[in-house]
Amino acid sequence: xxxxxxxxxxxxxxxxxxxxxxxxxxxxxxxxxxxxxxxxxxxxxxxxxxxxxxxxxxxxxxxxxxxxxxxxxxxxxxxxxxxxxxxxxxxxxxxxxxxxxxxxxxxxxxxxxxxxxxxxxxxxxxxxxxxxxxxxxxxxxxxxxxxxxxxxxxxxxxxxxxxxxxxxxxxxxxxxxxxxxxxxxxxxxxxxxx
Length: 194
Hints:
With 194 residues, the protein is α/β, with parallel strands linked by helices. It has one domain: Rossmann fold (3-Layer(aba) Sandwich), CATH 3.40.50. It contains seven helices and six strands. It has a six-stranded parallel sheet with strand order 3-2-1-4-5-6, with helices on both faces. The longest helix has 13 residues, at 16-28. It is globular, with a radius of gyration of 16 Å. 27% of the residues are buried.
């Protein structure tokens, strides 16, 4: 039975921060693999700045192809929109529960808003949460402090954002060091975010 960490995101684009965190988790926790679940549309994000699903999936594929423990996933592409994590988990269990057990990976900033997620209590009852540090405003809701299912990971703090990358690429800044090489090559070739 493999223990798989699910790292949800729009990955618009995937960057070295995502890679460092995912790699840290497969190397320094009990996770066997991390799946980057490319989200078609988050209930909290507007569609206009999003590249098409297959392009974002392709960039995740390019970023992870040389890392056997990191895998791209387009599981949410065929599910009803908008995507809710609780529904995706049910779908994953139906498909893979014989070989895999799942847990969630999220930043501390997401945990602060976790109580607003659809059926968050059900998720927390059934799944472990691996939470990596972020420099974020606001207080942690008290129900999550010291919770037995929430594991705070001592991963490096990576304050790189896809928004920052898109914005500055459009301004002609060199953002190449923030992206895995194959992602930069794809993005540059396709002339994205210009």
